[in-house]
UniProtKB/TrEMBL annotation:
Organism: Shinella fusca
Compartments (UniProt record): Cell membrane
InterPro entries assigned: MetI-like, MetI-like_sf
Membrane topology note: Multi-pass membrane protein
Predominant location category: membrane
Domain ABC transmembrane type-1: residue ranges: 125-340
Protein name per its UniProtKB record: Microcin C transport system permease protein
Amino acid sequence: MGAYILRRLLLMIPTIFGIMAISFAIVQFAPGGPVEQVIADLTSQGSGDRLSGGTDMTQETGGDGAYRGARGLDPEFIAKLEKQFGFDKPPLERFLTMMWDYMRFDFGESFFRNTSVVDLIAQKMPVSISLGVWILIFSYAISIPLGIKKAVKDGSAFDVWTSGIIIVGYAVPSFLFGILLIVLFAGGSFLDWFPLRGIVSDNFDSLSWWQKPLDYMWHMTLPLITLLLSAFATTTLLTKNSFIDEIKKQYVTTARAKGLTESQVLYRHVFRNAMLIIIAGFPGAFISAFFTGSLLIEYIFSLDGLGRLGYDSIVRRDYPIVFATLFIFSLMGLVVSLVSDLIYTWVDPRIDFERRDV
């Protein structure tokens, strides 16, 4: 197993290098970089759209290589802008410098926010954690018992009706369901029971200790319901299918022949084998809950999380944030994939990845 882990760790280096290289190359051909963003502000072209969060107004280069939106500006000023953003160097040199900094976990500062990338991620993470962790807890708490119940009652009316509800819930876009909840319960056209903005009230600090968690859950109710609609569908059906496969095996028949009750057969013998794939996928779901954001949900409910940060950074061409988050999440994805494989071998010792090619 040690050799397998070492090979996987070594493979992470070219993998993440390739991810960053392809992304960096694509960005080089994308119009409207940070220099053009500043020029657009200075020349009052597209600044209204960008400041309001609308479509970015890009400035293409003319035939002479100069920025079209920069005509009339001092060329020395343009050169200073390029130097400030690091675009006075060749692309290859910029890429290698960026990767060297990232290898030392130095992610630099945002182009437009005057704050380090790490601090920005730390500021936005509480919102994404609030959404992700609660969704993870509730979805697993609902999915596993429901999946087991559906497996035991496979083909019954309960199984058919719950499957229909799950499929419909999974098919309906979460942002549409969120808008419906706002219209019904957040002062849209009917009831005004829940707030529309943030994860806590403006007077949160002045609330008593018992009012704070209530205020927090009051703000989180509608976003959580919106995300839960589709969050537990996959895990529920996966749990059901895993249990059905195990229930049909010979050892279950043998256990029943020994006089064990259905509950004993289900939870003493079937549970561990059926939950293998669910347990192995838990690290990925757990990490995703901490470090990913739901862009549309954050916009609908005015939540300032990682999803919104990533979108705004792409629109504004804030490359330090874009590339740093890509590097961090790619690295974490590779590590979590390795951890999931190791959990497979822990749950089921019959699995031996070391005998297989990576």
